[in-house]
Structure formats: structure tokens, C-alpha cells
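sry for the spam today, last one i promise. C-alpha cells for design, 124 residues
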């Protein structure tokens, strides 16, 4: 499994397919995508999992973790999270965080992230 640095544009089709397939592609694009670090895992030259990392003021937020359905539960997303956590350690950042779908919070807690009481709704 090799993790590669990729462009924001390389993440968009996978984000769209996995997260919001019923909405326009523009829905998965972030205003600050150009400022982020983006990573992907490829199988046979096709991206199967991706994540984006945004660093600001001594902390980092990872966003848009997406893995193709047929590659889920095989460790790809876990490897991407470990990768961005290690990057944050190298950068000596004090905090790493994410927003999560409610049904995915247990997954993130496995990496030492703590659930908060904050909640929001996006896209209905």
C-alpha cells in the first residue's frame, strides 16, 4: 500500500462517488482545497481512497476521507489517517481534528480522537 501526495482535483471524483453521488460534483469541492495537502492510495493506477489535510494556526483538520465501496474495511482509510497524524506530529502541531458523520464516530475514536457534543447537518 503506497500513499501518494495528489492534487485536490484528483480527490474530487472519489469524494463525489463515495460521499455525495446524488449531488453535483461542485458540492464536494472545498473553497480552500488549493491550500490543503491531499493524499491518495492507488490500486492498479486507480485511486481507491483519499483524504485532505488543512493546517492553520497550529492545528490541522482532515476532511473528505473517502474510500471506494469495494475497498472499505480493508485498512485503506486507517492508513490514510495514520499518515496524516504522522505528518501532524512531524509538523509539531498541537491538535488534529475532523467532522464526522454520526455513524462513523466509533471509527475515529479508534485513533484516539474524542467525540464532542457539537452537531450539525450538511446537505439535509
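last one done:
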Amino acid at each position: 500500500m503506497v500513499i501518494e501526495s495528489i492534487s485536490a482535483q484528483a480527490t474530487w471524483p472519489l469524494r463525489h462517488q463515495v460521499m455525495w453521488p446524488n449531488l453535483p460534483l461542485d458540492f464536494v469541492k472545498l473553497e480552500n482545497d488549493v491550500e490543503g495537502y491531499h493524499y491518495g492510495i492507488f490500486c492498479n493506477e486507480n485511486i481507491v481512497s483519499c483524504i485532505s489535510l488543512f493546517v492553520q494556526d497550529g492545528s490541522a483538520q482532515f476532511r473528505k476521507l473517502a474510500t471506494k465501496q469495494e475497498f472499505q474495511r480493508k485498512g485503506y482509510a486507517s492508513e490514510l489517517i495514520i499518515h496524516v497524524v504522522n505528518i501532524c506530529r512531524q509538523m509539531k502541531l498541537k491538535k488534529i481534528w475532523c467532522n464526522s458523520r454520526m455513524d462513523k464516530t466509533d471509527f475515529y475514536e479508534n485513533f484516539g480522537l474524542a467525540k464532542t457534543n457539537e452537531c450539525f447537518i450538511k446537505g439535509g
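The first helix runs from residue 8 to 19. ok im logging off now
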